[in-house]
Amino acid sequence: MLVSPSPDITRNEAWLAEREHNVPRGIITAHPVVLERAEGSQVWDVDGRRYLDFVGGIGVLNVGHNHPRVVAAVQAQLGRISHASFQVAGYEPYIALAQRLNAMIGSGEAYKSLFLTSGAEAVENAVKIARAHTKRTGIIAFHGGFHGRTLLGVTLTGFAAPYRQNFGPFPSDVFHAHFPNPYRGITAERALAELEEMFATTITPDRVAAFLIEPVQGDGGFLPAPPAFLQALRNIATRHGIVLITDEIQTGFGRTGSMFAFQKAGIRPDLVTVAKSLAGGMPLSGVVGRAAIMDAPEPGGLGGTYGGNALACAAALAVLDIFEQDGLLEHAERLGVQLRAGLLGLQRGNPGIGDVRGLGFMQAIEMVDAAGAPDAGLAQRVIDAAREGGLLVIKCGVHRNVIRFLAPLVTTEAQLDEALAILGKALSAVRR
């Protein structure tokens, strides 16, 4: 409980002081801001200051903060049943959500869905399912990929700091291949050649249970996998009996302009992990995959007490209704074009922006020094200056020098113009 702050400090400062005393330092907060309310693409702190939120709960709020239809769905479900655990007794929202996602991702093929609580939990269960199906143990993930903070999650994640620290030993039989990054000289052809070299020198394909890949790397720097690379990976997986898992936790639900990023490449994965924007802010994740693969674990091998909570499933059904009925994908495509054009315009006047990249409304800028090397300090100064101007953004990238934009898809064109203007002023303020 907050003691009434001194007249010399704000309520925000008082709460931050309480945070220092009560929350461990291992969980960082990107901005020294304590929020009180939110709506759409806007948030207000405890002192009433407004910010444009271009973080969206780290890609969780594609339909915006407190969307009225999500709120109504949760309120209605709360009056029926809030939690029973699907492992004890079923309930309609879980099964109805599975039906809809299976049809959406399976496109006529038999798919099944398992619901959990966090993205990391979805990834871990996808690995379990792939291993059960193939009777193999090897998992190939990619440098720069991010797959969660559990021990297996950080093992699958393709960079060390800050996630691995001294948390080991880590699970075995996890290997990392190169992910295409044209800006840093890693072409799709080179990445595929190095994958074949891995098969020859590190792990033979008959020992590999699954490929795990983000179609656009999230925390690794908003790097899109070229469609030809994903198509080649799909062919390699099919040829060797390897399960292809696409991690759509950050890319899913319209972020890239299609419902899922793998659709841009014209492929169909064997398993898809979903979370974040699935339930409009409620904690829900899932694994959606080919029925024969999903049925590989024996009864009792999958589950979790809170997995597929009834309130979260009701929220997710409302989210899918919003996408189907409100033209959100088309709006996201227009926003993506507007954001990319704005960022490219800012790049022309700012040599510190080395690269503008992304897919759809999932865009980022990579900050570099005069020699083109990653400049994490510059990125942080821009982020801080943008906050002072009323815009919240966060960083990503292996070197933490990439500024990413995860605004809700309900952002208006006027709000996006406002955000770009604030960003432009921030870049000017910190220019060397």
From TrEMBL:
Record-listed E.C. numbers: 2.6.1.19
Family matches, as PROSITE patterns: AA_TRANSFER_CLASS_3
Keyword list, A-Z: Aminotransferase, Pyridoxal phosphate, Transferase
Cofactor(s) annotated in UniProt: pyridoxal 5'-phosphate
Entry's Gene Ontology molecular function annotations: 4-aminobutyrate:2-oxoglutarate transaminase activity
A Pfam family it matches: Aminotran_3
Xref: CDD domains: OAT_like (cd00610)
InterPro entries associated with the record: 4NH2But_aminotransferase_bac, Aminotrans_3, Aminotrans_3_PPA_site, Class-III_PLP-dep_AT, PyrdxlP-dep_Trfase, PyrdxlP-dep_Trfase_major, PyrdxlP-dep_Trfase_small
Family according to the record: Belongs to the class-III pyridoxal-phosphate-dependent aminotransferase family.
Protein name: 4-aminobutyrate--2-oxoglutarate transaminase
Taxon lineage: Bacteria, Pseudomonadati, Pseudomonadota, Alphaproteobacteria, Acetobacterales
